[in-house]
Amino acid sequence: MMAHRLIYVAYCALVIAGLAGCVQQKKQPAPAPEGPVTSLELPEGVKLAAIPGGASEPDLVERVVFYRAMYAKSLRALRDYYRTQGNEPKRLWAEEELSQVWQIKPYRYMIEAEVPTGPVKAATSVPEADELYNQGLSLLEAATKKNKVEADLLKQSLAKFKDLANRYPTSDSMDKACYYVGLIHDQYFPGDTQIALAWYKRAWETNPKIQMPARFNSAKIYDVRLHDRNKALEMYRRVLKEETFNKANVEHASLRMAQLSTQGQDTAKHATDPIYRQ
Question: What is the pTM of this model?
Fold first, then answer.
């Protein structure tokens, strides 16, 4: 009887070990086979048009953004084509090239180009704009109501607010939409500080009496993240003058102005001390 139990236990151990091995042995993507390569800038058989020497920054940036996006989209389409055709070697080539494309960091060279320009007074009631605003707000609330932020919902919310800003710049929802675009970039995309500042600015330019802390949030960015004392002081002053609707923000602005002003005086004083003269 004891022997049977030992055999059973050993069998169970082997089964468990086998299952664990299966779990640990995660299937790795097949490597791309060796294949012919070409030059990225001077591919054979392709005649490229020269880029004008006097091209402006907007022209050059637009060209980079367009062709960068088309490169990725075309490569993905080519991969899918080879998949449907059953051409596995070429599909793997395209897959390998795509994996390298995703490692590129696509910088935003002209942030101001992303922020709408034109009329700065938002006073017209536009039902379609109000609908986009409400959709964006609902998506933002859904994206952030849990402890974990839902990135997909957050991006959908951002798209709604930006769509409103681009399509209905004179609507009375424009200022609030711009504020929320700034807020999302500010709070959920750490690398988008300058983008957040641009949208906050657009919000108060659109409606100088906006009842949202666009100036205060900008002041906090300059103060805490960018450590730009002069810009922080400038924005805190504007909070005291133009955003008095939030008592807590006004008190914080007053406190930080006093602290930053004292820091500036101390710096100026120390700069004249002999020990600081080099």
Answer: 0.62
